[in-house]
Specification:
Layout lengths: L5 E6 L5 H15 L9 E5 L2 H20 L5 H11 L3 H17 L6 E3 H11 L11 E3 L2 H13 L6 H16 L7 H10 L6 H7 L4 H35 L11 H11 L10 H6 L11 H36 L1 H21 L1 E3 L3 H11 L2 H8 L5 E4 L7 H15 L10 E6 L13 H8 L11 E5 L1 E6 H17 L3 H7 L6 E4 L3 E7 L5 H21 L7 E5 L2 H13 L4 E3 L9 H14 L4 H15 L3 H11 L4 H12 L5 H6 L2 H11 L8 H14 L6 H11 L14 E5 H4 L4 E6 L13 E5 L10 E5 L9 H26 L2 E10 L10 H11 L10 E4 L39 H17 L8 H5 L2 H4 L3 H16 L12 E4 L15 E4 L5 E7 L5 H16 L5 E8 L3 E7 L4
Parallel strand pairs: 1-7, 1-8, 2-3, 2-6, 4-5, 6-7, 9-10, 11-18, 12-14, 12-15, 13-14, 15-18, 22-23
Antiparallel strand pairs: 11-19, 16-17, 20-21, 21-22, 23-24
Helix pairs in contact: 1-2, 1-3, 2-4, 6-8, 6-14, 7-14, 8-14, 10-11, 10-13, 15-17, 19-20, 19-33, 21-22, 23-24, 24-25, 24-26, 28-29
Length: 1048
């Protein structure tokens, strides 16, 4: 039998997915009779990073094949065997093909799906009725936000929109929510580009306001009709009970009669939150034990009719609730349509089109035209297709590709060559359902339940895990097999069951599950999770792993921020999306404040930001700050700049700045303010953003500031891969990555999170078929609405479970050597509802216990076997270059930092950190036992210990470390409208005397006294009359300088 040209690879985490894809690509590339086969090959993936990796792997493989084939003997042997050629022929082909690809790099089509979509759109712009010269807008959020603002701005001008938003606001207030509709409109707008909502929106798009009004009236009439029917059914049921002599006392707790009374009252919301149905079915007692036998016999005889009447009412009530939900959300659907009209108008006005709209347009095109015609217009005729991450492909994207692929797959070229298709993916890593990813289409292909082509697929599962060590692979195998059985879901078991088990390739590994105490609230748990995270980091580093080999993965950005802050506080280096935000840079904040001030002068807020940043950079004493701020912050902007020029010795001419174009304005600022460094990564990124914006042709100061306010949160530095720092990121950001050590805190996420999510309900083949769709919140009451609604509920429930489990799977499969899981202790449960219960039940299934005091461990915690010393970052020669031509006037090469100064600074920071943890002399031993201090060189550790011991035992200081005073170490003093102060140490005695210590490691300076006097002044403002200050100079000896303060 001839092998199929349609291959599907089910590639679990770490199984060599990219290597396999490259292998398939090279087989076609080097086995083709065509001299330039890459012109007919199209590889599609989702991100530019994945594109770059795939291209690099293909080119590297070709290079190694002819330069160093011994480095990958398997690749050479595989290709020689499958192509039926000898080694020399293979190497010759590899060299020639590499040269051709480099020469024709533009024809090397390994691209993103979005880029391929864009290419089709450009080609068929006329058919899509797009304006000439249109631009594709990638930032859909910014456009939708502007459209929403334009809708809100029509309040009071457009009567219909005003009434709609008023009704929406009233509806929210009736539900106990805020009247503000801004967030709701933003949420509605996002649906316009969500492929999961495309079919209902397509139907509603065809209706005008009048039609919507008619539909609404139909819903109201149907509700009234259903309400009347329910009332009639209840009367008939009561009549049936009377005719059979079933009085109130016959049934247990009068349940049936009470139920019918509620039905007649029209209060249906909680009607079926009781046990009546199970009583009627015989699962629970329906009548009292003392009921006479004749009555019992009569009830049993009529039980089927009792059930018939019960379900007749229940079905009618379900229909009523369905219609009622649809009507309650009628206003939002009308608002949605108005937003869509606004979006269309905005795009036409600005001659742009959102990329997210094009899949829908392309769908209409590929259905109407033949594939050869489309290829002819594109100028390409692809014969071989490679689709990566297929589990994240949306149903619309796939349906758009099917006609193009099918034409190549099912036919032959003139020389008899057949096309081919390779799909690579893993349903367990489908974590993008919220943006249209359809896991089910991949599952159906794997199970051979569906196939859009006439060619049957050849399916292969990559079974070996080449990433993780044995303990981690075995843990994941056992854990997810347990999960598949514990959740009692056939759909989940088909993905995570026995067939998903991976084979071990690497020895060793370590897995640890720890649990924080049970019962704590979310805010109370956070510090516990953070503390255990820090412990895990210390463990990994004790095992000789460097900071850059450790990743902390979390579910939310808030969790990442909290973890990152504590890691920094403990002295660790971190890299996170939050730490890479350009707007967080103080230097960039200074630049933006100055630009805003020139755009709109006399802004006191910007004056204050500029002063704060300047004082931060210049390290002028706090006492001087208070006086200077008081004198300058309320000045006019012109006088304000004169004042700061004098105070900080800045050669900045506002008049010259004002005359410059935008790009040169920023260059001039960086040149003028000595605290700004163009080589700083954040400043450089900001300057690049200004430069890119200036190319738009509308680069005024005002337009850039508007652009910055909309885009600032998105501007981030690229993650520095070689920096020795702990990676802190969300699980979604970690997909496709791997790390020697992975730490997973906050592992208590619900499997079915209580998140408000709207669903569409089809009225097809009902009396409301013309209404077409209902739109309302997903809820547990959905099964009451009828058989179709019940099926929809189950479908959504399984989808939510897959979302939760797939995210967990991605998290647990990132680690190579060590995996630390931090969850919460929970009570035993037969039906797990969150991650914590899954971990607990798994550990219990292993015959072990998981609680606050007992951790689960698998494998052996060892030091890293082949510890490579970290390469020191090379010293850089920084060139002061700008983004305009002004840099040509001068090139400055500054001197490099003195190593002795760097060592002294590092010693000072370490001493401050240690002293901040010592409140009394008894704490000295405990603090010096901390892991990161033990790792210091012995000489450095002993010197530090000696200095701290001298300080604590100093005659003028020892009384302060007795432990009888209230002690504050590096605690912030918050003063209204003033900067935050942070003294090194404050002792407050029982008598109310305050003693302030400030530690210094350099030589005594006059500004030291001014600084500590500023602290004392603030404490007197707080009402303390006795304030004593001491400057503590720490060198080989400890010197104490006491500064007495007046009592007034």
């Amino acid at each position: 039998m001839k092998q199929s040209n349609f291959h599907i690879i089910n590639a679990a985490a770490g199984s060599g997915k990219t290597y396999t894809l490259v292998l398939y690509y090279l087989t076609t590339l080097l086995g083709s009779n065509n001299s330039r086969p890459y012109r007919m090959m199209l590889a599609l993936t989702f991100t530019n990073k994945a594109v770059n990796e795939m291209k690099a792997r293909i080119l590297e493989a070709l290079y190694l094949l002819y330069q160093a084939p011994e480095k990958d003997p398997f690749l050479m042997q595989y290709l020689c065997t499958h192509l039926g050629i000898d080694k020399n022929t293979l190497l010759d082909r590899a060299e020639k093909m590499l040269r051709k690809i480099v020469f024709e790099y533009g024809s090397f089509d390994v691209i993103t799906l979005d880029k391929f979509t864009h290419r089709i759109v450009r080609t068929f712009a006329k058919e899509f009725e797009l304006p000439q010269g249109f631009e594709v807008e990638l930032d859909s959020k910014r456009v939708l936000k502007r459209v929403v603002h334009s809708i809100i701005n029509q309040i009071g001008q457009d009567e219909f929109i005003t009434q709609l938003l008023f009704e929406l606001s009233i509806t929210k207030m009736n539900q106990g929510l805020s009247w503000d509709v801004q967030t709701d409109l933003d949420d509605f707008a996002s649906l316009l580009l969500n492929e999961n909502d495309r079919l209902p929106l397509s139907d509603l798009r065809k209706k005008d306001r009048a039609t919507h009004q008619k539909d609404q009236e139909k819903i109201k009439k149907s509700i009234k009709k259903t309400e009347d029917r329910i009332h009639t059914l209840a009367i008939n049921f009561l009549k049936f009970l009377d005719e059979n002599g079933f009085e109130r006392g016959v049934f247990m707790r009068d349940a049936l009669h009470k139920h019918l009374e509620v039905v007649q009252s029209g209060k249906f919301e909680k009607l079926y939150e009781n046990q009546l149905e199970s009583m009627l079915k015989g699962d629970r007692p329906l009548y009292k034990k003392a009921t006479d036998q004749a009555t019992v016999d009569q009830i049993e005889e009529q039980r089927s009719l009792l059930l018939h009447h019960f379900f007749e009412i229940k079905n009618a009530v379900g229909l009523y609730l369905l219609l009622d939900r649809t009507l309650k959300f009628w206003t939002p659907r009308l608002v949605l349509q108005e937003i869509e009209k606004g979006l269309e108008a905005y795009q036409n006005e600005n001659q742009i089109r959102l990329l997210g709209e094009f899949n829908r347009k392309i769908s209409a095109l590929v259905q109407a035209e033949q594939a050869p015609y489309i290829f002819a217009r594109l100028g390409e005729r692809y014969q071989h297709f490679y689709l990566d991450e297929f589990q994240d492909t949306s149903s619309l994207q796939w349906s758009n590709l099917v006609p193009l692929i099918g034409n190549a797959l099912e036919g032959e070229t003139l020389d008899g060559t057949r096309g081919s298709l390779l799909l690579v993916g893993d349903p367990k890593q489908a974590i993008y359902r919220w943006r249209g990813g359809d896991i089910q289409q991949f599952v159906n292909l794997l199970n051979k339940k569906s196939n859009p082509f006439q060619v049957a697929p050849w399916i292969k599962r990559l079974e070996v895990n080449y990433r993780s060590a044995a303990a981690i692979v075995e843990f994941n195998n056992a854990f997810f097999l347990h999960v598949a059985q514990a959740l009692h879901s056939p759909e989940i078991e088909s993905i995570y069951g026995t067939d998903s088990q991976q084979q071990v390739n690497l020895p060793g590994g370590f897995v640890q599950i720890k649990a924080v105490g049970k019962g704590a609230k979310q805010d109370e748990k956070k510090p516990l999770y953070i503390s255990e995270t820090l412990n895990a980091v210390a463990q990994a580093m004790a095992n000789q792993y460097s900071e850059k080999e450790i990743a902390v993965l979390v579910r939310t950005k808030d969790q990442a921020v909290a973890i990152g802050a504590e890691l920094i506080a403990e002295g660790y280096n971190i890299v996170s999306s939050d730490s890479l935000e350009v707007l967080k840079s103080p230097q960039v904040q200074l630049l933006i404040a100055i630009l805003k001030l020139f755009d709109q002068p006399e802004q006191i807020t910007q004056h204050k930001i500029i002063l704060d940043r300047l004082w931060e950079f210049s390290e002028v004493e706090k006492t001087a700050y208070f006086e200077f701020v008081d004198q300058t912050v309320l000045l006019s902007t012109a006088k304000f700049f004169k004042a700061i020029q004098k105070q900080f010795s800045i050669s900045f001419n506002p008049n010259e700045f004002d005359r410059l174009p935008l790009v040169e304005k920023v260059d001039y600022l960086v040149e003028s303010f000595p605290f700004l460094d163009s080589n700083d990564a954040f400043v450089s990124s900001f300057m690049e953003d200004v430069f890119e914006f200036s190319r738009s042709g509308v680069a005024s100061l005002a337009t850039y500031i508007k652009h910055w306010e909309e885009q600032a949160e998105k501007l981030r530095l690229a993650s520095p891969e070689n920096k020795n720092a702990i990676r802190v990121m969300t699980i979604h950001q970690a997909k496709g990555l791997e790390f020697p050590v992975v730490i997973l805190p906050f592992m208590d996420t619900p499997i079915n999170p209580n998140i408000t999510e709207k669903i569409w309900y089809s009225f097809k083949e009902t009396e409301l078929e013309e209404v077409q769709w209902g739109w309302f919140n997903f809820s547990k009451k959905l099964p009451l609405f009828g058989t179709q609604a019940e099926a929809l509920y189950k479908e959504q429930l399984v989808a939510k479970q897959f979302d939760a489990l797939n995210v967990l799977y991605v998290a647990l499969t990132r680690a190579k050597d060590q995996l630390y899981i931090i969850t919460q202790e929970v009570s035993e449960s037969t039906s797990p509802t969150n991650y914590a219960q899954l971990f607990s039940s798994f550990v219990l299934d292993q015959g072990k216990v998981l609680d606050e005091n007992t951790a689960y461990e698998s494998g052996e915690q060892k030091e890293k076997s082949s510890s490579k010393s970290l390469q020191e970052e090379p010293q850089k020669i920084n060139l002061q270059l700008g983004i305009s031509n002004r840099w040509k006037n001068k090139i400055i090469v500054p001197s490099l930092i003195n190593e002795e100064v760097h060592i002294a600074q590092k010693k000072g920071v370490l001493l401050h950190d240690v002293l901040a943890k010592i409140r009394s002399r008894e704490e000295l031993t405990r603090v010096l036992e901390e892991e990161h201090l033990k790792q210091l060189p012995e000489e450095e550790f002993l010197a530090m210990k000696s200095s701290i011991t001298q300080l604590i035992q100093h005659p003028e200081l020892n009384v302060l470390f007795e432990g009888s005073d209230q002690v504050f170490c590096e605690k912030e003093l918050l003063i209204p409208n003033q900067p935050i102060l942070r003294p090194d140490r404050m002792n407050i005695s029982k008598e109310g005397k305050v003693t302030i210590l400030d530690y210094k490691t350099g030589k005594p300076k006059a500004k030291h006294q001014e600084q500590i006097e500023g602290y004392a002044e603030v404490m007197k403002q707080f009402g303390y009359k006795q304030v004593e200050t001491k400057l503590v100079y720490i060198d080989q000896d400890v010197q104490v300088v006491t500064i007495n303060q007046s009592l007034n």
